[in-house]
Amino acid sequence: MHAIEIDRLTRVYGSVRAVDGVSFHVEPGEIFGFMGHNGAGKTTTLRMLLGLTRPTSGSARVLGHDVVHESLEVRRQCGFLPASYALPAHMTARQFLHYVAAMFDLDPGVAETRIQSLLQLFGLEAAADRKLGGFSTGMTQKVGLAQALINEPRILLLDEPTSGLDPLGRYELLEHLRRLSSERGVTVLFSSHILSDIETLCQRVAALHQGKLVAFGPVEALKSEHRSANMDELYLSLARRAA
Amino acid sequence: MKARFLWLDMRATLGERKTWLAAGMMLYAAISMPFVAAKPPEHVLSALKGWFSTSDPFILFLFIWTDLAMNKCILVLGVVLASSLLIRERETGQLAVLLSKPISPAAYFLARTLSACAVMGVLYIGTHLAAAPFVARSLPGFRAGLFFASMAVHLFAAFFAVCFSALMAVLIQRRALAGFVSLMVLSLLVGMAFIGFYNPAWNGISQLNPLTQGISVLGHVDDLRPGHVLTPIALLLGMNAAVLALGALRVRHLEM
């Protein structure tokens, strides 16, 4: 069974086809790159996978669960970090993580243990009892990632997770993701327009352009097929061909 | 419904600045009202004597407390606590994080509204508990049973103010407009709450006003029975449930 299976997924807003008949699949335990320029349809696709946006047509399954009819079960097993978000400024990092844990019905004792280990993992122990309103972008992103991991998800959907991070924060985040995949077998759908991050992290990718899937497969095979030396060249070649 | 989530949400709301401002307003009412009631303006006194046919200072206080203080407080608090529900979270981007968890939008709306009701309850009951000893000492003929019976019924009208404001938030989906409409409608309901007292011809229709139900104990100050407390509470529970159901229905069809 594929971890994520998308079949002719389409979302139309008025006359705009935000996602247009997209099909691809993600294998369990892999870090899969989902690339495309801003507005290509990546975020809409991720939102449909979580059942937050209803597809106009097509279907998708996450760990075998239909994203429309079993969206709560999908969300129970997924962690999600949106591209653009804020955390409640009046809560501390610890309070917020407990708040999210309660949404998963986690036992308070289990939640406390997980929160402690996540705070440690992201180096947030010293800031755990400070209000989130005073956090820097990098620290907010770490809390964002911690909240996405609180339920020990089998699938992690990350939407532009490295934007806004400094080089060190970006490096640490990519390392965390590698560890999650290799040590815990977490499947990561890594959506980004920063192609170097995808090249660093992913073996296989899907590329969207104006809502349409323009490429899907192993990075090396795609580069060789399109005679591209790196991801930038590959994406430019794909985008030009699609235009 | 996730009970722990409800509890944590309530605790978080209690820690917000807006809640502290609301608490300050309630505290001001608790401290100032006994002074106002000790020497009420002449026109208020004569109107009250006309409606209640009594010069019992405690009854006069109860009217002033319920109408001039608590009715106004609950309409402002209802708007403050709930009129930006889900709108603020969506504007700031918090909703994208929160609704990616295994909780439906309708359940989230219900949990947040009930949590706001709980905060209203804490502030409202706290104010009464704080005011009671002060009033008992400064006002002759204080009747604790009547004071708290009136509080119990009016509390459910306070919950209505919260539920209604939350409904406006999800129907209108614009923070300022939702707050304004909630404030206007609730003000109108507060303003008409006593209409059945001074014009019995309006008594029947005014029973549909949740705020009239909320102050109904004042119509039974000399013959208060359990039914005078339980019936309006049951009616207000029904009204609140209907408003919550409408809100949940609306949220189900929203794409976040």
UniProtKB/TrEMBL annotation, chain A:
<protein>
    <submittedName>
        <fullName>ABC transporter</fullName>
    </submittedName>
</protein>
<dbReference type="InterPro" id="IPR027417">
    <property type="entry name" value="P-loop_NTPase"/>
</dbReference>
<feature type="domain" description="ABC transporter">
    <location>
        <begin position="4"/>
        <end position="235"/>
    </location>
</feature>
<dbReference type="GO" id="GO:0005524">
    <property type="term" value="F:ATP binding"/>
</dbReference>
<keyword id="KW-0547">Nucleotide-binding</keyword>
<dbReference type="Pfam" id="PF00005">
    <property type="entry name" value="ABC_tran"/>
</dbReference>
<keyword id="KW-0067">ATP-binding</keyword>
<comment type="similarity">
    <text>Belongs to the ABC transporter superfamily.</text>
</comment>
<dbReference type="GO" id="GO:0016887">
    <property type="term" value="F:ATP hydrolysis activity"/>
</dbReference>
<dbReference type="InterPro" id="IPR003593">
    <property type="entry name" value="AAA+_ATPase"/>
</dbReference>
<keyword id="KW-0813">Transport</keyword>
<dbReference type="InterPro" id="IPR003439">
    <property type="entry name" value="ABC_transporter-like_ATP-bd"/>
</dbReference>
Automatic annotation (TrEMBL), chain B:
<dbReference type="GO" id="GO:0140359">
    <property type="term" value="F:ABC-type transporter activity"/>
</dbReference>
<keyword id="KW-0812">Transmembrane</keyword>
<protein>
    <submittedName>
        <fullName>Uncharacterized protein</fullName>
    </submittedName>
</protein>
<feature type="transmembrane region" description="Helical">
    <location>
        <begin position="146"/>
        <end position="170"/>
    </location>
</feature>
<feature type="transmembrane region" description="Helical">
    <location>
        <begin position="177"/>
        <end position="198"/>
    </location>
</feature>
<keyword id="KW-0472">Membrane</keyword>
<feature type="transmembrane region" description="Helical">
    <location>
        <begin position="107"/>
        <end position="126"/>
    </location>
</feature>
<feature type="transmembrane region" description="Helical">
    <location>
        <begin position="58"/>
        <end position="87"/>
    </location>
</feature>
<dbReference type="Pfam" id="PF12679">
    <property type="entry name" value="ABC2_membrane_2"/>
</dbReference>
<feature type="transmembrane region" description="Helical">
    <location>
        <begin position="229"/>
        <end position="249"/>
    </location>
</feature>
<feature type="transmembrane region" description="Helical">
    <location>
        <begin position="20"/>
        <end position="38"/>
    </location>
</feature>
<dbReference type="GO" id="GO:0005886">
    <property type="term" value="C:plasma membrane"/>
</dbReference>
<keyword id="KW-1133">Transmembrane helix</keyword>
